[in-house]
Each structure stands twice: as structure tokens, then as C-alpha cells.
């Protein structure tokens, strides 16, 4: 809940402290800026108001929830939790691009007593995150506009298939904190790239990740998590519908392609889990 993390948040307009207002229905800063708490439990703290980028749609978030709740990416969630645990005692965790809150909830389950902040630019995602775990607060914000989080206040930041603003991530981390980044390898979902029209993984992705973090973070560990899953047609549909490829196909076209594949569908899951510390 927001009350659990209010001491970590700052006003996106002026940077001053935030407090919960009467009946926890709004947030109020020292300079009088107010932000309404949605009835679903999240709050929008965007510095420039609602921008052009709205993030993932409600349908994409629902598909992601169905797929992740089925456990298909459980080894990834376990690896993220282990990487966060490398910092030692973890009190606060921030996830950027939190989606459904699936990975953040797994981290909090593994870190006894830790608090979490889930940030996503999508309101549909924020609604899901708000109910993902009792010890987290759900925030609508754009990492490229600035995170409404205090300097040096979080022990770990996680970015799972999500954007990374290295300057902002370094700003909010404690000096001993860790950044955990999950990115797909070129082998990820390769069986579906041609058949269903999924967007392939850029072969320069690893280099571009390194460039984006250069001067702010250094890698301390990289682990590849790779395994195969056997999916029925409904699971493949959720897999496709939860990602960016969903924006480039129609449900009917996806379904036709998927139903042409014999069940179960063999799909490779292959990601790199990188752990970084600030330099």
C-alpha cells in the first residue's frame, strides 16, 4: 500500500516531501501540490502530467497476468530474486516498468519485511501492481521524465524487459545498492518469431545495454537463464499478446497462425540476468 512507502516518495513537481492526506485519498506535498489516489490504490506522479506515452494496454496487461501466473517465467522471477538478495539485507526495492507486479511480488516474498515501489507509465499496469503484494505502493510515472523517489533511498532496482534511465536509477539507489536488469538473448522465443510474427531480438541489444549504463554502472555478474516450455495454443496467444508484437498484429491473424502449430508448442525462453553496481 502507498502508506508503506510514502516516506520514499517525493513530489514530481517540486521535489519536496509527500504525505498522505485525509482518509488516504490523496497525496500532499509541503508546497501544496496534491495528487489523487485512484480507487484501485495507485497514484499518478508524472512530472509533466499525463504524457503521450500511455504504456501497455489493459489487454496486454491481462495477457501478461495470465501467462506469468501460469508459472512459465518462474525461473526468471527466481533469478531476479536471487540477484536482488546479493545486496544482503534488502529493505526497499523499486521496479521500473513493473507491468503486473509479478516480479516485484516475487522479490518481496523472498526478502522478508522488504517494501516495494512499482512504477509503470501504464494505468492498466498500475491497477494490477496495486494489488500484487501487500507491502508495495503502485505509482504511475515515466522513468524518462524522472522518478518521484528520494535520492539514495532504495536498496535494489529491477528492470525486467523494461526501459532504463541510468541517471535516474543511480540517483535513487543507495551507495551499496544493486541494479538488476533482465534482457532477452537472441535465442528467446525464436520458434515464434517467424511463425507468429513476433519481433526478433536485436543482435546489438547487449552492446546497447552496456552503452546505456556506461559511466553510471558496472556489471558484477551476468547469468543466462535458458530453458524450454511446452505451451498450448492459449498460452502462446497470451505470450504474443502480452508483448510489443501485439501492437503489430490483429487477434484474428495471431490466432490463425497459432492454431496452425501442433500442440504443445515448444518455445525457448532465454534471458540474461545482469547485476550491476554504481560506479
Automatic annotation (TrEMBL):
<dbReference type="Pfam" id="PF21302">
    <property type="entry name" value="Zn_ribbon_RlmA"/>
</dbReference>
<feature type="binding site">
    <location>
        <position position="188"/>
    </location>
    <ligand>
        <name>S-adenosyl-L-methionine</name>
    </ligand>
</feature>
<dbReference type="InterPro" id="IPR048647">
    <property type="entry name" value="RlmA_N"/>
</dbReference>
<feature type="binding site">
    <location>
        <position position="73"/>
    </location>
    <ligand>
        <name>S-adenosyl-L-methionine</name>
    </ligand>
</feature>
<feature type="binding site">
    <location>
        <begin position="100"/>
        <end position="101"/>
    </location>
    <ligand>
        <name>S-adenosyl-L-methionine</name>
    </ligand>
</feature>
<dbReference type="GO" id="GO:0032259">
    <property type="term" value="P:methylation"/>
</dbReference>
<keyword id="KW-0949">S-adenosyl-L-methionine</keyword>
<dbReference type="GO" id="GO:0046872">
    <property type="term" value="F:metal ion binding"/>
</dbReference>
<keyword id="KW-0489">Methyltransferase</keyword>
<dbReference type="InterPro" id="IPR016718">
    <property type="entry name" value="rRNA_m1G-MeTrfase_A_prd"/>
</dbReference>
<dbReference type="Pfam" id="PF13649">
    <property type="entry name" value="Methyltransf_25"/>
</dbReference>
<keyword id="KW-0808">Transferase</keyword>
<protein>
    <submittedName>
        <fullName>Methyltransferase type 11</fullName>
    </submittedName>
</protein>
<dbReference type="GO" id="GO:0008168">
    <property type="term" value="F:methyltransferase activity"/>
</dbReference>
<dbReference type="InterPro" id="IPR029063">
    <property type="entry name" value="SAM-dependent_MTases_sf"/>
</dbReference>
<dbReference type="InterPro" id="IPR041698">
    <property type="entry name" value="Methyltransf_25"/>
</dbReference>
<feature type="domain" description="23S rRNA (guanine(745)-N(1))-methyltransferase N-terminal">
    <location>
        <begin position="10"/>
        <end position="45"/>
    </location>
</feature>
<keyword id="KW-0479">Metal-binding</keyword>
<feature type="binding site">
    <location>
        <position position="29"/>
    </location>
    <ligand>
        <name>Zn(2+)</name>
    </ligand>
</feature>
<feature type="binding site">
    <location>
        <position position="33"/>
    </location>
    <ligand>
        <name>Zn(2+)</name>
    </ligand>
</feature>
<feature type="domain" description="Methyltransferase">
    <location>
        <begin position="93"/>
        <end position="177"/>
    </location>
</feature>
<keyword id="KW-0862">Zinc</keyword>
Amino acid at each position: 500500500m502507498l502508506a508503506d512507502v510514502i516516506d520514499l516518495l517525493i513530489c514530481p513537481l517540486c521535489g519536496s516531501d509527500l504525505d498522505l492526506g485525509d482518509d488516504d485519498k490523496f497525496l500532499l506535498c509541503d508546497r501544496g501540490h496534491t495528487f489523487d489516489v485512484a480507487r484501485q490504490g495507485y497514484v499518478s506522479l508524472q512530472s509533466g502530467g499525463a504524457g503521450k506515452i500511455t504504456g501497455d494496454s489493459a489487454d496486454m496487461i491481462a495477457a501478461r497476468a495470465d501467462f506469468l501466473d501460469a508459472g512459465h517465467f518462474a525461473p526468471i522471477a527466481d533469478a531476479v530474486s536471487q540477484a536482488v538478495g546479493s545486496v544482503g539485507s534488502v529493505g526497499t526495492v523499486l521496479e521500473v516498468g513493473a507491468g503486473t507486479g509479478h516480479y516485484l511480488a516475487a522479490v518481496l516474498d523472498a526478502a522478508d519485511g522488504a517494501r516495494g515501489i512499482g512504477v509503470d507509465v501504464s494505468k492498466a499496469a498500475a491497477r494490477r501492481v496495486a494489488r500484487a503484494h501487500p507491502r508495495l505502493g503502485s505509482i504511475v510515472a515515466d522513468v524518462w521524465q524522472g522518478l518521484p523517489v528520494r535520492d539514495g533511498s532504495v536498496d535494489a532496482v529491477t528492470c525486467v524487459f523494461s526501459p532504463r534511465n541510468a541517471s535516474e536509477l543511480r540517483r535513487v539507489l543507495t551507495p551499496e545498492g544493486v541494479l538488476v536488469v533482465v534482457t532477452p538473448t537472441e535465442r528467446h522465443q525464436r520458434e515464434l518469431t517467424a511463425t507468429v510474427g513476433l519481433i526478433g531480438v536485436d543482435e546489438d541489444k547487449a552492446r546497447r545495454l552496456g552503452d546505456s549504463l556506461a559511466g553510471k554502472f558496472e556489471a558484477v555478474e551476468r547469468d543466462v537463464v535458458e530453458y524450454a516450455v511446452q505451451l498450448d495454443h492459449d498460452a502462446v496467444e497470451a505470450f504474443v499478446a502480452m508483448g510489443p508484437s501485439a501492437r503489430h498484429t490483429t487477434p484474428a491473424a495471431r490466432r490463425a497462425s497459432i492454431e496452425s502449430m501442433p500442440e504443445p508448442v515448444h518455445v525457448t525462453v532465454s534471458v540474461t540476468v545482469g547485476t550491476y553496481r554504481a560506479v
